[in-house]
Amino acid sequence: NAGVTQTPKFRVLKTGQSMTLLCAQDMNHEYMYWYRQDPGMGLRLIHYSVGEGTTAKGEVPDGYNVSRLKKQNFLLGLESAAPSQTSVYFCASSTSSGEQYFGPGTRLTVT
Amino acid sequence: GEDVEQSLFLSVREGDSSVINCTYTDSSSTYLYWYKQEPGAGLQLLTYIFSNMDMKQDQRLTVLLNKKDKHLSLRIADTQTGDSAIYFCADKVRDDKIIFGKGTRLHILP
User: Fold this and answer.
1) 3-state class of B97 per DSSP?
2) 8 Å CB contact of A105 and B42
3) pLDDT > 90: percent of chain A
4) Which of A35, B27, B70, B73 is deepest in the core (most CB within 10 A)?
């Protein structure tokens, strides 16, 4: 039982490049989330999904897109990376009572 | 709007009790959570409390909820060096929305 996994763990992008972050969970959770964590800002919700085939915007969705084609996977895409997207990105999945299980994070630097 | 607030830092001597406080604004909260984040890692769920409870105890952890004052606290008994981390309070305001505080960094003094 791996829980929540994220790939890659680290990435450096140049401004304007694109990339996809992959999140996978093996707990059969319906809800999945993408957050970014910046110093002094806590966790901010980017996008979330309440089930396979559904996505919704969170607090800071601009510049990101997501897809949930399979229940166990939640993908976060950056179409044209900007230095303001330098951050640590966390994926989480949750039970129906809201207990969230987090992945180990992806540290992204955009130069 | 909905908000969760915590103090940013707390220093405690090893062996003492740590008390981390949190206030929230939403009246429709159903569950409140405490998460722990160690350096370079994701958040780990420590414990949670249902909104109709006043207290929950789990080994060294005690959660107190004052729903009237919208105040949540986490007490860690016999604080150890391994408890050094950032602690996040979180509030479930509806099925698809959980609000996190900015985290309290707990520093353990020898």
Assistant:
1) strand
2) yes
3) 86
4) A35
Question: Is A97's pLDDT higher than 80?
Answer: no
Q: Do A90 and B45 touch (CB under 8 A)?
A: no
Question: For the CA atoms of chain B, what is the radius of gyration?
Answer: 13
Instruction: Quick: pLDDT tens for B16-39.
Output: 999 999 999 987 888 999 999 998
C-alpha neighbours within 13 Å on the C-beta side of residue B81? 2
Q: Which region, left, alpha or beta, applies to residue A63 given φ > 0 means left and ψ of -120 to 50 means alpha?
A: left
Q: What are the tens digits of pLDDT across the range A39-55?
A: 877 889 999 999 999 99
Of B33, B41, B96, the CB nearest to A48: B96
Which run of H or of E encompasses A102? Answer: strand A100-102
Cα separation, B18 vs B75, whole angstroms: 5
Joined together, the tokens standing for residue B28 give: 């429709």
